[in-house]
Design goal:
The structure holds two protein chains of two kinds.
Chain A (H helix, E strand, L loop, with lengths): L1 H24 L47 E6 L6 H21 L6 E6 L7 H9 L4 E6 L3 H14 L2 E4 L15 E3 L4 H15 L5 E5 L3 H14 L3 E6 L8 H10 L3 E5 L2 H13 L5 E4 L6 H7 L7 E4 L8 H11 L7 H16 L5 H9 L2 E3 L4 E3 L12 E6 L2 E7 L4
Parallel strand pairs in A: 1-2, 1-3, 3-4, 4-5, 6-7, 6-8, 8-9, 9-10
Antiparallel strand pairs in A: 10-13, 11-12, 13-14
Chain B lengths: L1 H9 L10 H36 L6 H18 L12 H36 L4 H23 L14 E5 L2 E4 H23 L1 H11 L1 H6 L4 H26 L10 H14 L4 H22 L4 H15 L9 H4 L2
The chains are: A alpha/beta, B mainly alpha.
């Protein structure tokens, strides 16, 4: 009898822990009421905007080549080989390129790049952040990559006075914690959400939209922002779980609402099977997904279902940045992708401070706080909370297995 | 966590749980079909847990990694056969079936071998030394991590680029309920495999050995049953069935070939085994199918975030009424 009881205790423990986790993460909302207006999601043909080129006054990491500095380093902290690793590598390679260009041009100032793998996880990030903070040579950090992990470690950076520029964390709540060291090199989801909503409503002419979110900080926040902006157009609101791969019930619920467009708020490992299963079930409307899905991994894994998916992103297309793209490819053997230029820009800003002869964390933090200058992607100038004043959002489309830029939403 | 829960409950304006009864009624048969197909994969994996438990009274937590080995086996067979990631290729029915059977065979052999290896390396030395039961459990968890991290170091954190051999096409469409070719194949093949396994244990000489060891290992040994061979056989059968499950899983979800892709499925399959009565083969089948179906009903009724809660509430509910699972516990006792 002991054995039977043991098995039961095990099962119950598993049950309780998962149950509690699900309760804690439940933020189910029912936005809007069901409107029965039948819309025709007629396939719109949208003219693509050209990709921007490098602005003439953009700051580059090379600087004037005369910088002198001691033994200093900057850190990249984010996923390298963990969850959604491809998104982290895009940034890391941009950072690497900036540091390499800087060091090649400035023999008198060799900055070391230290890499910390947070595995993209709010549980793992605090450990590596403690390591980075206790390394006195690190003056500034590019990272963290994701919103959930950024939330977990923001206070530690604030207490240590170590400046961080995140090239990709978009959860709006991150800048409202009073952290003096938090800056991000892109628009947050309070910008991306309305942009997605505008695209879905005005360009796709969708009358009924399903919002599907995952259970991450990022997915929940972005879905809330987008649902708010869409208002009564939201006819169904579904949630999936991280690492889920089988979506028949959610796909069925979406099908039952017969929407003109589905917006998936989450990351690519779940988005790929979800979109494939959605298409397999016969759904023919538009599919829109955000920056967490905008990677070639999604295109590779969703097969033919990836074709025609719209991807929003507060990142700029890098196809117009010819020299950057060439150098990036030479360095990493990959095409630059989501947030590669943003990672490059964030690194450039930190390097400019170091080139000015700043030797400690406090002065570099102050430098970033008052920074004003043009980068590859945009004009950088932060408000008191660490949000940029200029925040472009682009819509992309998967065409013939490639992610190509479609529309600059800040222009419409 | 409790504070968060209270907070959520206190939000007066927003609804906490939806009870979408209308949707469940509308989607009832579709949910049942999808749940049976996915549940049959649970059942096949659950059989591995149940067989090993029946014979050794051991929860083999590394069984989810045996499944992952099967998934990689099937995937690499696809690659070896020249399939490429990306759009599903159209190929003739004959070669397609031959390729799937080949991939299934590779997956079953790979998973069976890794299960055997696991037994020899991780469990047998402990058995020789008469280690307490808890040590086996910790070893099982350790072995599970070791294999998982091995795959992580070798293949990285991204899933293998999805290769899809068969596109799901609706074969029947009964009043809006689509039954696809893949679902039929997976369900029928799983049930056939489970019946074969049940027959094997119930009616063959080797199966009699398994039942004898399950009932009373010492007496079985005195009666001339080679206990070590029976244990090895049990692991190989469980592993091979997990390999078959892995092929079906990769057919349904091509994005699932991943170092930790077996974790969630392993927990669910273990739940299914306990639900049906661990140590009981028919219980594993029943538990797997029931879990697959109820999970889908629950998601439709309450929303996708309640998927796991529904599964485990079902488990708790059934264990409260029937503490040994639906069909009762022991492999030996069930049918002598």
């Amino acid at each position: 009898m002991y054995r039977a009881r043991f098995v039961r205790v095990l099962a119950l423990t598993a049950a309780l822990s998962l149950g509690v986790a699900a309760c804690a993460q439940n933020t189910s909302q029912k936005p809007g009421d069901e409107t029965k207006t039948s819309g025709t999601g007629s396939a719109p043909s949208i003219k693509a905007d050209p990709a921007p080129e490098v602005p003439a006054n953009a700051a580059l990491p090379a600087g004037d080549g005369k910088a002198k500095c001691g033994k200093v380093s900057i850190a990249y902290i984010g996923t390298i080989a963990g969850a959604s690793a491809a998104l982290g590598l895009n940034i890391l390679n941009g950072v690497k390129l900036a540091v390499k260009e800087h060091n090649d041009a400035n023999p008198g100032c060799q900055v070391t790049l230290k890499q910390f793998d947070s595995e993209g996880s709010p549980d793992k990030a605090p450990g590596v952040v403690t390591q980075a903070i206790s390394d006195p040579t690190i003056l500034g950090v590019v990272g963290l990559a994701f919103s959930g992990e950024s939330k977990a470690v923001g206070k530690s950076f604030n207490d240590a006075g170590l400046v961080t520029i995140s090239p990709s964390a978009t959860n709006p709540g991150l800048s409202t914690n009073g952290w003096k060291t938090f800056f991000r090199a892109l628009g947050n989801d309070a910008v991306q959400g309305p942009a997605i909503s505008a695209f879905v409503a005005n360009e796709l002419n969708a009358k009924k939209v399903c919002v599907v979110r995952d259970d991450s900080e990022y997915g929940i926040g972005l879905a809330d922002q987008t649902s708010q902006a869409l208002g009564s157009k939201v006819v169904c609101d579904e949630q999936v779980k991280t690492a889920q791969k089988e979506f028949s019930a959610v796909v069925g619920a979406v099908q039952a609402a017969s929407p003109d467009a589905v917006f998936y708020a989450g990351y690519y490992p779940e988005a790929a099977p979800f979109v494939q299963q959605l298409r397999d079930a016969g759904y023919e409307g538009a599919v829109v997904a955000p920056d967490g899905v905008r990677d070639d991994e999604f295109v590779k894994n969703a097969g033919e279902a990836a074709e025609g998916v719209y991807l929003s992103c507060p990142c700029l297309p890098s196809s117009g940045f010819t020299k950057f793209s060439q150098d990036y490819k030479a360095l990493s053997n990959r095409e630059p992708s989501t947030y590669s230029p943003e990672g490059y820009d964030a690194t450039t800003i930190l390097l400019q401070g170091i080139d000015k002869g700043l030797k400690d964390r406090a002065s570099l933090l102050n430098f970033v706080k008052t920074y004003e200058g043009q980068g590859l992607t945009k004009q950088f100038k932060w408000d008191g909370k660490g949000e940029l004043t200029q925040t472009p959002v682009w819509i992309y489309e998967v065409k013939d297995g490639k992610i190509v830029q479609l529309k600059d939403m800040s222009k419409s | 966590m409790t504070s968060h829960l209270a907070l959520t409950l206190a939000q007066s304006g927003s609804q906490w749980i939806d009870f979408n009864v209308g949707l469940l009624a509308e989607r009832f048969w579709a949910n049942t079909v999808d749940g049976l197909a996915y549940g049959s994969i649970y059942a096949l994996v659950a059989l591995g847990y149940t067989l090993v438990y029946g014979v050794l009274r051991l929860i083999n937590f590394a069984h989810s990694e045996v499944f992952v080995v099967g998934a990689f086996g099937a995937y690499f067979t696809f690659v070896g056969l020249g399939y490429k990631p990306g759009p599903t290729l159209a190929s003739g029915l004959g070669p397609l079936i031959a390729n799937l059977v080949l991939a299934g065979a590779v997956a079953m052999i790979a998973a069976g071998l890794i299960a055997l290896l696991l037994e020899r390396v991780a469990y047998r030395p402990l058995r020789r030394r008469n280690a307490p039961r808890l040590v086996f459990l910790i070893t099982a968890i350790g072995a599970s991590f070791a294999i998982q991290q091995g795959f992580y170091l070798w293949r990285g954190a991204n899933p293998e680029p999805a290769i899809r051999l068969v596109r799901p096409e609706a074969v029947f469409d009964i009043a809006g309920t689509r039954i696809t070719n893949i679902q039929i194949v997976v369900f029928v093949a799983s049930v056939v495999l489970l019946i074969v396994a049940d027959r094997f244990v119930g009616q063959t000489r080797l199966g009699r050995g398994i039942r004898a060891v399950a009932q009373d290992p010492d007496t079985a040994a005195l009666m001339g049953v080679n206990k070590e061979r029976v244990i090895m056989l049990t692991f190989v059968i469980g592993g091979a069935l997990a390999g078959a499950a892995a092929l079906f899983y990769v057919m349904m979800i091509p994005q699932g070939v991943l170092y930790n892709g077996g974790f969630l499925l392993g927990i669910k399959a273990f739940t299914a085994a306990v639900l049906g009565g661990i140590g009981n083969l028919r219980g594993a089948l029943l538990g797997g199918l029931l879990l697959g179906v109820v999970e889908n009903y629950g998601q439709t009724l309450f929303g996708g975030e309640w998927r796991d809660v529904v599964a485990f509430v079902l488990l708790i509910g059934i264990l409260m009424v029937r503490p040994t699972g639906i069909l009762g516990e022991s492999l030996g006792r069930a049918r002598v």
